[in-house]
Design goal:
Helix content is about 65%, strand content about 10%. The protein is of the alpha+beta class. A 5-stranded mixed beta sheet has the order 1-2-3-5-4, with helices on one face. β2 (about 310-320) and β3 (about 325-330) form a beta hairpin.
């Protein structure tokens, strides 16, 4: 609140000083109407361009128009004064032109920033010609001072423009990262559960046709997968609706949750087994455990999508030379009865590779020696 108040005070002081300088110009030129009218028009145009509130500024009043028109009017006024040998200028017009130069460098598009800034700078440097055309020493001194002021104004405006650009890029990258993270959550968790529902539904239909007594466990699995999918979706939507504590609300997993993931994958037609070596520590970094969980989850989802004929799926967790090894292999031959729309868009392994390499690990996915598929990830512990 204090910083906002301070900014308001500084802005108010700047506006007051600019208005006071313009009033001095008007008072100095108001004696002679022929001399005062052109400069008064320039001052009114420049003051309107600088002081017009942004929230009330019409769409047609672009930065190019705001900075170029007053500068052109000032140059025409200077030319008129040379032709008639009668004109004045005070502190107001140079101050307005410096403000317009600042606006041009900071806010004009790249295609017009040089032209608009050049007009403002030329108008500022041409002001003493109105009075001191024959005084070369004064003109030279004014040019030096004017160039220094122009350089300082351009440098400050360019610095703020670069900060605006960096801020825009940072916001864009943050939003992109958030979108990618949310997309990864939707793909990893919701797609995993929904694919499980689809597969188990197909199994249930097959059992219903054969009047099997094992139908109830399959229906229970469908119910559990649907509940987990809704919970994952609810957490992800919660992240979208409320950014506070978003990291704590995102769906996560660790090595301990891998066991439940494997148990939930098993079905009457596919057996999943977890082999965790005793050397695997429980205190691995949370980021590594979460990434290992995602690797297992994505690999199991791909088994359902692309290897529906697999009967055995093996998940191995090992720890050698301070590196966590996660391996998921199956004995499928590429058979799948899922609809084409449920096969995925190929983003799963791409996202996994990005996640694993970001932690300094390696990911390999490919066919096994005889048949089946294997996904292997290695993380630094």
């Amino acid at each position: 609140m204090k910083s906002v108040t301070a900014r308001g005070c500084v802005a108010g002081a700047g506006i007051g000083a600019l208005v006071a300088a313009a009033v001095v110009d008007l008072l100095a030129t108001g004696v002679d109407r022929d001399i005062g009218l052109p400069q008064t028009a320039v001052l009114l145009l420049g003051a309107a361009a600088v002081l017009w509130p942004a929230h009330r500024r019409p769409a047609w009043l672009t930065p190019q128009l705001r900075t170029a028109v007053p500068a052109v009017a000032s140059l025409l006024c200077t030319l008129d004064s040379v032709l008639r040998s009668s004109a004045l200028f005070g502190p107001g017009e140079p101050a307005i032109l410096l403000c317009l130069l600042f606006v041009a460098v900071r806010h004009c598009p790249r295609t017009s920033v040089v032209a608009c800034a050049s007009l403002d700078g030329a108008a500022l440097l041409a002001l003493p010609v109105r009075l001191f055309l024959d005084d070369g020493d004064f003109l030279l001194s004014y040019m030096v001072i004017g160039l220094v002021l122009i350089g300082l104004t351009v440098a400050f405006a360019a610095y703020l423009r670069s900060q605006d650009y960096r801020r825009t890029v940072a916001v864009s990258e943050t939003r992109r990262s958030e979108r990618l993270a949310i997309a990864a959550d939707l793909h990893d968790f919701v797609a995993h559960h929904v694919t499980g529902i689809l597969v188990q539904t197909q199994v249930a239909r097959m059992m219903a046709e054969s009047d099997s007594d094992d139908l109830d466990p399959v229906l229970a699995g469908i119910e559990r997968a649907a509940t987990e999918a809704l919970a994952s979706m609810r957490r992800t939507v919660g992240v979208l609706r409320d950014t506070e504590d978003a990291a704590d609300r995102r769906p996560v997993g660790d090595l301990a949750a891998v066991a439940g993931l494997v148990d939930g994958f098993s079905s009457p037609v596919q057996k999943a087994t977890l082999h965790r070596e005793p050397t695997v520590p429980d205190d691995l970094p949370h980021e590594v455990q979460a990434a290992a969980f995602r690797v297992v989850q994505e690999a199991l989802t791909n088994v359902r999508r692309h290897a529906g004929d697999a009967t055995e799926v093996t998940v191995r967790l090992g720890y050698r030379q301070a590196r966590l090894e996660v391996t998921v292999s199956d004995d499928g031959r590429g058979g799948s009865q899922l609809p084409a729309a449920a096969h995925g868009g190929g983003f799963g392994l791409v996202g996994l590779k990005e996640r694993v390499t970001a932690l300094g690990g390696e990911l390999h996915a490919g066919p096994r020696d005889r048949y089946g598929w294997e996904v292997r990830a290695v993380f630094p512990g």
